[in-house]
């Protein structure tokens, strides 16, 4: 449990979480702000740098954990688990380090755990890999390509019981200068491990919207990791299933509920894949008009997105249902490369996918701070909540927070789970609390009797707070 006593709270509020991007040597962890009148109450799930998956309540107390990390952890609807609550999809074993290093190439086995961490289903063989669960007799499938799951960034359980898995495929691709390409592949995996459907990104290069010049840059690229390393030319970092939506209900076949939405960090595009044909039927990007200077006007045409994450359609029943919600990192990406200039900042965009216009956005300025007070150049996520708030993961800073539709911060938490990680240090381990994705968890998802706390947390004015020494 996280200490929420007066001294611990005071220490955690040494600086405001909005200033984490400035990288002070000491900054807050745990819950730093909680307005009970405007926040939406739920649990939150994420995997920390301690390689565990944590379920916390509104006061930051860890109410449950699984001794496995998720890239990301995925909640399973009890309707898909025979009514059993608390099942998650996580990584079970990796060859070394963490399963997200090398963009999933070290990820050997993935699977479903119940609330008590029993392995219910597994895809991939643990073998000599490092993992607390090891090989589960009769659970691994010989159908895993190369014997290794290589899952990365996303996966989803389908209504038919199959699991959609985003994975990597290292192979040569005709026309590329790089001898080996780190390609993206989607598998639909049955309960017995058989592959029911497969989609490979490089087979659809002409459908992503690249201009001839941009496609030339894609094919001529080489891995920045050096000779012999596979070229991660798209880096697909998100995969979601559209599900029921108002666009399909109105007759737009591009938004069939079975269709799959992905986004590319390296190429700055978001696309929808027709599940039946495998063809790309809707695109946003990879080229955009520049962001205008001066006051932001809404609605407006989508402007320059850079390195997006967690693109998905807002679910039915939530405010903005059917619109596209995406974390726009605004780092540096694209063919050719584009960036935001001297003031790094991120934003969350809500986009009408038919008109392709921004209808809502969040930036640091919406919380009465400079634009750069909200920034994560990589990873991160955003999810709409039932009361209209949005849960945001500012991933590289380990910060999770809720904002109202006006941008007021209703709840804020900074992960206390630090560890040396090469991901944050470009291959050199450095101490970090970064976290890939945070997701809201309804109270009804957990088994009955799971504790929770909902005590307001009012932070002091940052300019008046001091650490008192004895």
Write structural notes for this entry.
There is one protein chain. This protein is mainly β. The chain has one domain: TolB, C-terminal domain (Neuraminidase, 6 Propeller), CATH 2.120.10.30. Helices cover 4% and strands 32% of the residues. The chain contains three helices and 30 strands. It has helices at residues 6-12, 212-220, 246-249, and strands at residues 30-34, 43-47, 53-56, 62-66, 74-75, 88-94, 107-113, 119-123, 151-157, 163-171, 181-189, 195-200, 236-241, 260-264, 269-273, 280-284, 300-301, 309-313, 324-328, 332-333, 338-339, 347-352, 357-362, 381-384, 390-394, 399-403, 409-414, 419-421, 430-432, 439-441. The strands form eight sheets. Strands 1-27-26-25-24 form a five-stranded antiparallel beta sheet, with no helix packed on it. A five-stranded antiparallel beta sheet has the order 17-23-22-19-18, with no helix packed on it. The chain has a four-stranded antiparallel beta sheet with strand order 4-3-2-30, with no helix packed on it. A hairpin with a 5-residue loop joins strand 7 and strand 8 (119-123). The radius of gyration is 21 Å and the shape is globular. The model is unreliable at 1-21 and 132-140 (pLDDT under 50).
């Amino acid at each position: 449990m996280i200490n929420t006593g007066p001294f611990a709270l005071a220490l955690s509020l040494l600086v405001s979480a909005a200033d984490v991007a400035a990288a002070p040597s000491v900054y807050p962890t745990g819950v730093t702000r909680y307005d009970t009148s405007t926040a939406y109450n739920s649990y939150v799930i994420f995997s920390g740098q301690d390689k565990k998956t944590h379920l916390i309540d509104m006061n930051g107390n860890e109410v449950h954990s699984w001794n496995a990390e998720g890239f990301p952890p995925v909640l399973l609807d009890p309707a898909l688990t025979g009514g059993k609550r608390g099942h998650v999809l996580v990584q079970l074993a990796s060859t070394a380090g963490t399963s997200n290093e090398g963009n999933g190439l070290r990820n050997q086995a993935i699977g479903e755990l119940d609330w008590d961490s029993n392995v219910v289903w597994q895809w991939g063989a643990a073998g000599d890999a490092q993992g607390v669960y090891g090989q589960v007799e009769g659970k691994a499938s010989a159908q895993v390509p190369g014997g290794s799951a290589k899952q990365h960034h996303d996966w989803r359980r389908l209504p038919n019981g199959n699991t959609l898995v985003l994975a990597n495929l290292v192979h040569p691709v005709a026309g590329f200068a790089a001898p080996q390409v780190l390609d993206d592949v989607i598998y639909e995996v049955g309960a017995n491990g058989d592959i029911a459907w497969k989609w490979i990104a490089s087979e659809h290069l002409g459908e992503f919207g690249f201009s001839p010049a941009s496609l030339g840059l894609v094919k001529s690229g080489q891995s920045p990791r050096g000779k012999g390393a596979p070229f991660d030319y798209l880096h697909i970092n998100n995969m979601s299933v559209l599900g029921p939506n108002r666009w399909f209900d109105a007759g737009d076949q591009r938004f069939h509920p079975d269709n799959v939405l992905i986004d590319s960090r390296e190429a700055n595009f978001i696309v929808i894949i027709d599940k039946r044909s495998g063809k790309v039927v809707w695109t946003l990007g990879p080229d955009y008009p520049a962001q205008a200077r001066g006051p932001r006007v809404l609605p407006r045409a989508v402007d320059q997105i850079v390195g997006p994450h967690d693109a998905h359609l807002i679910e039915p029943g939530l405010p903005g249902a059917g619109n596209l919600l995406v974390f726009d990192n605004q780092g540096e990406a694209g063919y050719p490369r584009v960036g935001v200039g001297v003031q790094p900042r991120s934003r969350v965009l809500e986009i009408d996918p038919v008109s392709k216009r921004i209808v809502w956005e969040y930036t640091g300025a919406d919380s009465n701070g400079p634009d750069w007070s909200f920034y994560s150049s990589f990873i991160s996520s955003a999810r709409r909540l039932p009361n209209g708030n949005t849960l945001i993961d500012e991933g590289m800073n380990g910060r999770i927070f809720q904002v109202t539709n006006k941008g007021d911060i209703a709840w804020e938490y900074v992960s206390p789970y630090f560890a040396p990680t090469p991901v944050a240090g470009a291959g050199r381990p450095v101490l970090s609390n970064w976290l890939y994705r945070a997701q809201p968890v309804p109270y009804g998802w957990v088994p009955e009797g799971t504790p929770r706390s909902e005590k307001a947390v009012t932070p002091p004015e940052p300019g008046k707070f001091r650490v008192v020494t004895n």
